[in-house]
Design goal:
alpha+beta, 532 residues, 5-stranded parallel beta sheet, 16 helices, 7-stranded mixed beta sheet
Length: 532
């Protein structure tokens, strides 16, 4: 069992002063774990609330979630709360989703379920027995990829292809051969599905990492397995998760300062825009790594991470937060309305253009996952359309009006009528302002080609006092991945002080009691790996 967090663990980082720059999920996870292990932690956030991209938008006086909407891999957060002597279930109210998402192509509709058999039955009715069998084969392959990569890559430190091979070892080589890094996701969907609509549906998982299914490796099939393993609905919206992590960090003594922008970092700490100096022995940077590469936080930091070429950026988005009455289409919590020409949509995005015929994701935040009954009166909606990351001025707002018109026409074509009371649009330019040096890229580097996932920066840097966390770092984009990056950053800080395991169990590999699903922090030679 873990030692109790608190006074019994004081001194694990020798009272070192640690500044965490950015209260995104990665930064909050690192802050909570380090504070629980005795660190003197200050979190500095330029916005007025925690969460980073997991944010709320004031939409006509109504707070609407304007960031990530899907909560998976809850065991990551169970582990963090357990390691801090707390319980995730006591901090947020979670409900397992039965319907993962509802998909629409005009009048045609298809639900995917948490139960594979129910999804296969639905696909069989929708597209025929051949594609139902294809779905079962697709999911088996996706689960095999996830099983191969969870411990050595997703839960491990940043590594190279050779390093991953060494971690997996000879016995794991058959599984490694099956992750399909050199095949494109779009091509792999053709191996399983004859219906082009299903290729759209399962190719869409590439966009979870801000990538194109026509360029992303088939390895990203694993996202389908992640969702099928469980999607949870967070009462109060996803931003409630950020508030819970912030409260956890505060409970262990971390100080959270909002509306405080950092303009410089060095070996001695952080400098704020106000001129105030926050002294620190170690810094965890939970912002876009390109803020370092561009010298935004000091010229001496330019070489910490390499600059990202515009063509290597992930997607951005047009995001509408809307307070509206709805009718027609039977919305559930997660809904996808597909455009008519997927290849052209991603060709537009690759060329730096807004899509002419966009696919639209809609999160109906006030609906349970399986109940299509509309609430009485207006409800909170978030609409997301993929957009190029041109927030640095390399593109423009050309085509915005036509893309917006096509977005709402797509909804109408699927039978959904919206009567908005209030609406707010966030563009790539707005995201570039919210997340400095990102150019609006919401996921850091795009996962295009077999080696892109290995090119994300890891928790450690060539500067011994500087550590990285966040969705643009290893292991990648997404709420649970950002949390894993925070665990890795906290481990790296502790290892720097002779404590190689952030979740140490009296000097032995840490055992995380995950309510019957133990997570083990094992040291496979060098890297500390959080094993589910």
């Amino acid at each position: 069992m873990l030692p109790p967090a608190g006074s019994a663990t004081r001194g694990l980082v020798n009272g070192k002063r640690i500044v965490v720059v950015g209260a995104g999920i990665g930064g909050l996870a690192a802050a909570a774990l380090l504070a629980a292990r005795g660190g003197d932690v200050t979190v500095v956030e330029r916005q007025a609330a925690p969460g980073g991209k997991l944010r709320q938008v004031d939409t006509g006086g109504v707070a609407v979630d304007g960031g990530p909407t899907v909560f998976t891999m809850r065991w990551v957060f169970d582990a963090i709360f357990d390691a801090c002597g707390a319980s995730l279930d006591s901090a947020v109210t979670l409900t397992a989703a039965h319907v993962l998402a509802r998909h629409a192509w005009g009048a045609d509709r298809l639900d995917l379920f948490a139960d594979d058999a129910a999804s296969a039955d639905a696909i069989g009715t929708f597209a025929g027995a051949r594609d139902a069998a294809g779905f079962r084969a697709f999911m088996a392959e996706a689960r095999a990829i996830l099983a191969t990569l969870t411990v050595p890559f997703l839960q491990g430190t940043a590594t190279s292809p050779l390093g991953l091979t060494a971690r997996i070892g000879p016995r794991g080589l058959p599984g490694l051969a099956g992750i399909h890094p050199f095949a494109r996701l779009w091509d792999r969907t053709a191996k399983h599905f004859a219906d082009p609509r299903l290729r759209q549906l399962f190719g869409r998982y590439a966009t979870y990492s801000g990538s194109s299914p026509f360029d992303a490796p088939a390895t990203l099939m694993l996202i389908a397995a992640v969702e099928a393993d469980g999607v949870w609905l967070v009462e109060g919206g996803m931003s409630a998760l950020a508030r819970a992590l912030a409260a956890l960090a505060t409970r262990h003594g971390a100080r959270l300062r909002y509306d405080a922008e950092v303009t410089g970092l060095d070996r001695g700490g952080a400098t704020l825009a106000s001129g105030e100096r926050i002294a620190a022995d170690r810094v965890v940077f939970n912002g876009d790594p390109q803020a370092l590469a561009t010298g935004l936080l000091g010229p001496a930091l330019r070489r910490v991470v390499p600059p990202l070429r515009p063509r290597d950026r992930s997607l951005s988005a047009l995001v509408w937060t809307i307070d509206a009455e709805t009718s027609g289409f039977p919305l559930v919590r997660h809904n996808v309305f597909f455009g008519g020409n997927y290849a052209r949509e991603f060709a537009d995005l690759a060329a730096g253009r807004l899509p002419h015929d966009p696919s639209v994701y809609l999160c109906a935040q006030d609906r349970p996952a399986a109940d299509a009954t509309p609430p009485a009166g207006p409800e909170r909606l978030q609409l997301i359309v993929n957009a190029p990351a041109v927030g640095d001025g390399s593109g423009g707002r050309d085509g915005l009006d036509s893309c917006a018109a096509a977005t709402f026409e797509r909804l109408r074509a699927c039978g959904l009528t919206l009567t908005p009371r209030a609406s707010v649009l966030t563009t790539p330019e707005d995201f570039a302002q919210l997340f400095p040096a990102s150019a609006g890229a919401l996921y850091g580097r795009a996962t295009h080609g077999p080696f892109a996932a290995f090119r994300r920066p890891g928790a450690t840097t060539k500067l011994p006092w500087l550590f990285l966390a966040g969705g643009a770092t290893h292991p990648g984009a997404g709420v649970p991945m950002a949390a894993l990056s925070g665990i890795r950053a906290a481990e790296a800080v502790l290892a720097d002080h002779g404590n190689p395991a952030v979740l140490a169990d009296h000097g032995n590999p840490a055992v995380l009691a995950d309510h019957g699903n133990p997570a083990v922090l094992a040291d496979h030679g060098n890297p500390a790996v959080l094993r589910r």
